[in-house]
Structures are given as structure tokens and as C-alpha cells.
Write a structure and sequence with these properties.
The complex is a heterodimer of chains A (368) and B (478). Chain A has 368 residues and is of the alpha/beta class. Chain A has 11 helices and 14 strands. Chain A has an 8-stranded mixed β-sheet. Chain A has a two-stranded antiparallel sheet with strand order 1-2. Chain A has a two-stranded antiparallel sheet with strand order 3-4. Chain A starts with a helix and ends in a 7-residue tail after the last helix. The mean pLDDT of chain A is 92. Chain B has 2 domains: 184 residues, no CATH class; 283 residues, no CATH class. Chain B contains 19 helices and 2 strands. Chain B has a two-stranded antiparallel sheet. The longest helix of chain B is centred in the first third of the chain and has 35 residues. The two termini of chain B are 15 Å apart. Classes of the chains: A alpha/beta (368), B mainly alpha (478).
């Protein structure tokens, strides 16, 4: 190879990498800082202030690197590139704990944390002992499995769901267990989210209603709200996927219900259209994470009331259960400490349902 | 500052290279020195408490002071060569260099040992290890000793010495560059497009080795360590992954350092040469961390008599050198045992089996791989107890089953990554790349192929850095 050829070869590599390198560097420099990452649903690190204390502790350089990572140009596209590379090229079975089977993203939640299960049942026992033990109430408990339950036969590690149910039931012998695990299938879940699809829950609600000796509605109108629902797993997984359809159920009973948000002292709608534009479109159902909500159903002849201790899975099944009750109270003890419940709820002559997902039971440190 | 960080790659490096190539030749060392101080100070801004007063950038000042000692000593040594003053100055210089290293790196280690012997609770000193102290101390020692030996001339211009020791590409993780390696280039170096290209190729490949392979293997090692249902198979996979991670991590970093050096007009010594294809541990150490091995050979082993001594003395020399090599890597018993493990194997090879190993095809490779995997189990565990437990698991004495569902999942999930790493640790990838380039050259597409491959590695590495939380650099602790 002649010297001239060697030089030409060098020039092309230097130009390509130089342009890429300096171009990206420049983009990172001039790109305005963003406050939030919509895809990751978290606040992004801002440029740290230069302070002597921060320098002395070495905090400044750490903070600056975090800022540089968070505010990197094309961050979302690069995250996707990494996800595709790891999944397709390197054949990794999961990406940061998320994996894809038949178009459904699931999140590894393993192993079974028996201490967490015991912590949850201890919390529930506190509620039982404090508010329910000597009252005329019927107590039920039901568990919603995560998607790993349906992948048990695949290679993915999953805990023993039977052990989880048995342990939870042993800690809640005062409650009648309503088993819904076998009434569900993977298709009942959103592909890109952890939650269940409301339009697939009428049968489950009907089954639960029968177990609690009430009759809930089974006929609803199915209204599509978007073709482009992208759930919480979509952004975490980072793999390019299409948005999916999202529906809600309604009928005359649901339309007449009066919903009150006691956390913010306001009447709210059953479904929150504005949430569809927000960080978590699933908050469309009952306005997302609210600590205490009541749903009053003026059209029902019964006087029965239901109190549901719930997590986010309760948001879209509770309206369906509400068609069988005069009033449903939804309590989320992740936001409302259980020792304060007496200030807001009078427990007497009600059905009480503990409705929790396996994900919360196995990671129950948030229950107060 | 780590090479595989956003701060370095897309803030620090572009700015430094721009200024470096704009300023005239006379000012390039100053640019290199100032940028190296920023590079070091960025990660080492912590204050040192001196007489109760926190001194910001204390570790930077300590390093500058140590180099000043080396600078002045070398001048005195050269002036009083072959005289008592020169010899005493050398001893004082070595003592000062080793005192700093000994204090920061080994004080607590020895306190713990002494406290253990006399049976009291150790009261450890509140000191942190300055980044790169093992590397810059060794460079300084080599410089002072080389001046004493008359192999190099003492540097008159302090900026030249400071630039040599502090130069950011090799400051915190080597290779251990001797002054004689870069003496000419420090005063007169040329820059050219082919050199920059060579440097870019080397740097980007090193970045890929670190980010795309080493970090992924590290994630596997972490997963395997925290697994609920461990198995014999996963223990082996974890051990092999750890050995490969250390190789890709460190050799990747060395590649980046050598590449940066090339871009800046220096030719740093090679540090790795496919060590896992070795046929003996003797060969392995000729291919692994070559600059450290060379340093111990020239400044410890040969001055002690090397191998031209009786058997007893040879065994003693090797054990001393390998205890020190182990201790250089870290102040824990694990590193001492790790060093001695190699020392014992090298003694056995030297005295008995080296010639046999050269002929025993296949067996020699299995022996080297087994020995290195076991050694890196000792190396990568925090305590000897942990290492013992891990080795028990690997050899079926930990009560584990051969495979569990969870283990199978992790083995399957990281299987291809491991396969790529194993292939990448041999010269096969290099040969394939050379053939591909030769084939592309026929159609005059070799430069395009090179640019595309490098661009892809750079983009993917950036993607992993941007989205990755797992980005430790193993050799920082040395």
C-alpha cells in the first residue's frame, strides 16, 4: 500500500468517527435540558451547581455524570438500540428484568419473598384486629397474578404461586379466599403494561360478585379511547413496539355513579380523559393512585356496601363491582396509613375485600 | 474520570483534542499536563484532612509532591552518580515513593494483621486510596532507578516529567509506561492522519471491549452471586465470566489508553496479548499485564538475582516477586494468596514441567484455563472465605445440584454473551477481521467497512453507557 493510499484510508475513518464523535458531543452540549423523561416516567437530573462542598465530597463529578447521562441527546433512541442489540443480537432472554413472550412484556419478579408476604398479611391483620374483628362484616381476599404466572412453563424463573396463595391465606384465615387466578389468561393483560384490560374483566367481576353474594352487571358498552396505549413496561423494556388499543366499559349504571376523591375533597369522573396524555395513561381509570375514593351507585336496590383494600389493579375492576353495591369505598394503604382508617371509614355491615396483585404482596414494604 | 463515561467521551475528550491539535507543538505538553490535572482532579477532588484542616484536591497535591520528589532526586542522582550521595538520594526517593503507596494502600491492612495477632479490635485509619497511586508510583520509581542506572537522562524541564507521569491516557490504569518508552516523544513527536486513525481504531475497539463485553459479563457475575437457586454449572459459568470480565475490562482500558496515546502522538507499550491462549502460566504472564510483569522483572526479580541463582534462592525470589505482585493488586489476603498461587505454579513450571507443557497439546491449554479461572475466583472475591465457598461450589462440594431452573435461565440468557467473550479472547476475531478487510479491499470497500464497524461499536457503546448503571472499572482500585 502506498503512503498516499494509507493516508486516504486514514482520512475516511477519521472523518466518519470524528463527525460522529464531535457531532454527538455538540448535540449534547446544545440540547436544552429536559425536566422529565416521558418514556421513563421520571424526573431527569439537571446540571449540578458548582459548590465547594460538592467538590470536596466528590459529589459534583458524580452528579455531572448523572446529568450527562440523563440529558444525553437521542437518549430514548439509544436506549432502544441497546434493548434491540441485547435481545436480538446477544440473545439475552430479558432486558433489565423485562422480557417479551408472544408480544407481551413481563417483568421478572423472583424469588418469592416470604418476609414480604408475612409483612403484608401482618398489615392486613392489623386492619382486621383494629376495625373488623368484632363487626358484622364479611371479609374476602383475592389475588391477581402477574404475567409471569402464565409463563411458568417457559424458561423464565418464577416463584411458586401456589406457595404465595397458601402463605397469604394462612395469614388471613379470617377472610374467604376468592380464587380468580384460573379465570384469567395472558390476553386479559395489556401487552406493554402490568395491568389487566378492563374490557376483559366483566366475567371476573361477575364471578367475584357471585362469590360475595351480589349481582353485578355483565352487559357494558365497550368504548375505545386510544389506539396508542403504551404502558409502564414499554418504556422500561425499551424495545420498539406498537401502541395498543385501550377501552373502557360503561353502561347507564356506571354513568350515574357519583365518585368522590376524599384525598383532594372533590368529585371526580369515573374515567379521566386527561390522564391519557399524561405519564401513565392507566391513570385513566379512577384517576390513578388516590388513597381514598368512594363510588356511590344510586341505581341499585341493595343497601350493601363494599370496602376494597386495593392496589392499582383495583382501579378498573372496582367500577364493575360497584354495579352490585350501593356504595364502594376504595382504600389504598400505600398512601393512607392503616392506623388512620378509623377517621374516614365506619366499618359496619359491609363486605370487605382485600384485592392485591402478587407484585405488591411480594414487594409489600410500601404498605402502611 | 472513567474513559467509558459520558463526561469523558463527549465533554472532556472533544475539548482536549480540539485544543491540543490547535496549539503549536511547543504548547502541546502544557495542554496535556493541564488537561491531565483536570482529568485527575475531576475524579479525585476529595479533601484530605491535614492537622484537622480539610485540604481540597489533597490527593492531587500529594501526587504533585511525590513527582516533585522524583524530579529533584533524579537531578541529584545524576549529578552524584556512582557516589554515596547519589545512592543515598536514590534510597530516599524510593522510600518517599513507597511510603506514600504504603501508607495509603497498606496501612489499614497491616493494622488489621497486627491487631489480629495481638488480639485487639483494629482501629483503622480514615484514609481513602488515591486513584492510580500504584501506577504513578511505579512509573516514578522506574524513572528514578533508570536515571540511577544511567539508562535515561534526568529531566531538566519539570513540565516534561509531570506530563510523563500525569498524562491522562495512562495515569490511572496504565499501561505502566516507562520514561524510556516515551522519552523521545515527550520532546519531539509527530502527528499524522494514519496515527490518529490507528488511535481511533484502538480506542473504539477498547471501548467496545469494556462496555459491550466486560460490563455484560460483570452483570452475569453479579446475577450469579445473588442467585437464589445456585448450581455447580452456574458457579463455573460465573467463574469463567469473572475471568473473562477482568480480561476484557483491563485489556479494553489498555486499548483505549494506547489508542489515545497514538492520537496524541505517543506509542505506549502493549499490555495484553491474548493471554488465555497460553500453554503455560509462564507464557500467560508474558501475555497478561505485560508492563507490570516487565516492571517486577526489571526492578525486583533481576536485581534479586533473577533465575541465575541456586534452586533455593530462585524459589525465594519467585515467592517474593509474586507476593509483591499480589499485594500490588490490593491490600487483602486474597491478593496475597492470588499472587502466591501464581508464584507456586511458576516455580513448579520452572523446575519441573515447563518443557512437558510445551509439548502436551490440549492438556496445556486446559491446565492454563483451569489455573487462571481458579486464580480469578480468589482475585474477584472479597474474602478468602467467599473464594473458598465459591471453589467448593464449583467442585461439587457445596451441596449444590448440577443445574436448577433459575441457573439454567441465567446460563441461557448470557450464553451468547459468554460465547462471544470466549471467541473474543482468542486471536480468531482479529483473523476474521483481517480476512474481511482483505476481501473488502478487493472492492475498495475496506475503508468503508472499517468506518461502519467502528461507528457501530461507538454508537452501541454510547447506547450502553447512556442506559447502563453497570459501569465499574475494576483496575481503579489498584
Amino acid at each position: 500500500m502506498s503512503e498516499k493510499e494509507r493516508r486516504t484510508k486514514g482520512i475516511l475513518t477519521v472523518i466518519v468517527i470524528g463527525v460522529l464523535f464531535y457531532g454527538y458531543s455538540l448535540l449534547c452540549l446544545i440540547k436544552p435540558s429536559q425536566d422529565m423523561s416521558l418514556s421513563e416516567r421520571r424526573p431527569l437530573k439537571q446540571r449540578p451547581e458548582l459548590k465547594v462542598e460538592a467538590l470536596a465530597s466528590g459529589e459534583y463529578s458524580d452528579d455531572f455524570e448523572e446529568y450527562a447521562l440523563d440529558q444525553a441527546a437521542f437518549r430514548d433512541e439509544l436506549r432502544t438500540a441497546k434493548s434491540v442489540y441485547q435481545s436480538v443480537i446477544m440473545r439475552k432472554l430479558d432486558h433489565q428484568g423485562y422480557y417479551l413472550t408472544n408480544g407481551y412484556i413481563s417483568r421478572l419478579d423472583y424469588p418469592l419473598d416470604t418476609e414480604s408476604i408475612d409483612n403484608a398479611t401482618e398489615r392486613f391483620r392489623y386492619i382486621y384486629d383494629t376495625y373488623l374483628a368484632d363487626k358484622d362484616v364479611s371479609i374476602y381476599m383475592s389475588i391477581i397474578p402477574d404475567k409471569n404466572y402464565f409463563n411458568e412453563k417457559l424458561l423464565y424463573p418464577a416463584y411458586d404461586y401456589n406457595e404465595l396463595v397458601v402463605r397469604t391465606r394462612e395469614g388471613m384465615e379470617y377472610a374467604q379466599y376468592i380464587s380468580i387466578m384460573n379465570t384469567l389468561s395472558m390476553e386479559d393483560y395489556y401487552k406493554t403494561d402490568t395491568h389487566l384490560r378492563q374490557e376483559r374483566l366483566a366475567g371476573v367481576a361477575d364471578f367475584m360478585g357471585r362469590e360475595m353474594n351480589v349481582s353485578v352487571d355483565t352487559i357494558y358498552d365497550e368504548i375505545k379511547v386510544t389506539d396508542d396505549f403504551k404502558g409502564v413496561y414499554y418504556s422500561q423494556f425499551g424495545f420498539p413496539m406498537r401502541g395498543e388499543e385501550m377501552y373502557y366499559l360503561t353502561n347507564s349504571n356506571l354513568e350515574d355513579m357519583i365518585i368522590y376523591d376524599h384525598e383532594n375533597n372533590r368529585q371526580i369522573s369515573m374515567y379521566d380523559m386527561e390522564a391519557l396524555e399524561g405519564n401513565d395513561p392507566y391513570e385513566f381509570y379512577l384517576h390513578g393512585p388516590l388513597s381514598l375514593i368512594t363510588i356511590e351507585n344510586p341505581n341499585v336496590s341493595t343497601v350493601k356496601e363494599l370496602v376494597i383494600f386495593r392496589d392499582s389493579f383495583g382501579s378498573n375492576i372496582a367500577p364493575l363491582l360497584a354495579t352490585g353495591y350501593r356504595k364502594v369505598t376504595l382504600v389504598d394503604i400505600r398512601y393512607l396509613p392503616s392506623n388512620r382508617l378509623g377517621q374516614f371509614i365506619e366499618f359496619e355491615n359491609q363486605d370487605v375485600l382485600f384485592l392485591y396483585s402478587t407484585g405488591v404482596l411480594n414487594n409489600s414494604e410500601t404498605l402502611k | 474520570m472513567v474513559f467509558s463515561s459520558m463526561t469523558f467521551l463527549y465533554y472532556f475528550l472533544p475539548a482536549v483534542l480540539l485544543i491540543y491539535f490547535v496549539v503549536p507543538a511547543k504548547g502541546k505538553n502544557v495542554v496535556l499536563l493541564i488537561s491531565s490535572l483536570i482529568f485527575y482532579g475531576w475524579g479525585e477532588s476529595r479533601a484530605i484532612n491535614i492537622a484537622g484542616h480539610p485540604v481540597l484536591y489533597g490527593y492531587v497535591l500529594f501526587m504533585l509532591l511525590t513527582i516533585l520528589v522524583g524530579y529533584l532526586s533524579a537531578l541529584v542522582i545524576e549529578k552524584y552518580k556512582d557516589k554515596v550521595t547519589g545512592r543515598i538520594t536514590l534510597i530516599i526517593a524510593l522510600f518517599c515513593c513507597l511510603l506514600g503507596l504504603g501508607f495509603f494502600k497498606y496501612a489499614n491492612f497491616f493494622i488489621e494483621i497486627v491487631a489480629g495477632i495481638i488480639g485487639v479490635t483494629p482501629r483503622l485509619l480514615d484514609i481513602a486510596l488515591p486513584i492510580g497511586i500504584s501506577f504513578y508510583t511505579f512509573q516514578l520509581i522506574s524513572y528514578v532507578v533508570d536515571v540511577y542506572r544511567g539508562q535515561v537522562k534526568a529531566i531538566r524541564n519539570p513540565i516534561t516529567l509531570y506530563t510523563y507521569v500525569i498524562m491522562f491516557p495512562q495515569l490511572i490504569a496504565g499501561p505502566i509506561v516507562r520514561y524510556s518508552d516515551v522519552e523521545q516523544e515527550l520532546s519531539h513527536r509527530t502527528h499524522s492522519i494514519p496515527m490518529v486513525r490507528e488511535g481511533i481504531v484502538r480506542f473504539v475497539i477498547g471501548l467496545g471491549k469494556k462496555v459491550l463485553i466486560a460490563n455484560q459479563l460483570g452483570a452475569l457475575v453479579d446475577v450469579a452471586k445473588s442467585v437464589q437457586e445456585n448450581s455447580v454449572t452456574l458457579s463455573w459459568v460465573c467463574a469463567i465470566a469473572a475471568a473473562l470480565q477482568i480480561y476484557f475490562d483491563f485489556s479494553g482500558y489498555s486499548d483505549m489508553a494506547i489508542g489515545l496515546g497514538r492520537i496524541l502522538g505517543f506509542r505506549f507499550p502493549e499490555n495484553f496479548d491474548y493471554p488465555y491462549v497460553s500453554k503455560s502460566i509462564t507464557e500467560f504472564w508474558r501475555r497478561w499485564h505485560m508492563t507490570l510483569g516487565g516492571w517486577f522483572r526489571d526492578y525486583v526479580y533481576i536485581p534479586m538475582g533473577g533465575s541465575r541463582v541456586g534452586k533455593g534462592r530462585l524459589i525465594f525470589n519467585l515467592l517474593v516477586v509474586w507476593s509483591l505482585t499480589g499485594l500490588w493488586h490490593g491490600a487483602t489476603m486474597n491478593f496475597v494468596v492470588w499472587g502466591l498461587f501464581f508464584g507456586v505454579l511458576l516455580i513448579i513450571e520452572k523446575l519441573f514441567i515447563l518443557s512437558y507443557l510445551q509439548k502436551a497439546k490440549g492438556i496445556n491449554h486446559i491446565y492454563v484455563l483451569m489455573a487462571t479461572v481458579i486464580s480469578f475466583v480468589i482475585f474477584s472475591c472479597d474474602t478468602l472465605g467467599q473464594a473458598g465457598a465459591m471453589l467448593k461450589n464449583m467442585f461439587g462440594m457445596g451441596g449444590l445440584s448440577l443445574m436448577t431452573k433459575e441457573s439454567l435461565y441465567h446460563v441461557a440468557s448470557y450464553g451468547f454473551t459468554l460465547f462471544v467473550a470466549i471467541i473474543g479472547a482468542t486471536p480468531l476475531v482479529k483473523k476474521i477481521a483481517q480476512r474481511a478487510m482483505a476481501a473488502a479491499e478487493k472492492y475498495k470497500l475496506d475503508t468503508v467497512l472499517e468506518s461502519v464497524v467502528l461507528a457501530l461499536i461507538l454508537i452501541l457503546s454510547t447506547a450502553h453507557i447512556v442506559d447502563g448503571s453497570f459501569n465499574p472499572f475494576l483496575y481503579f482500585r489498584f
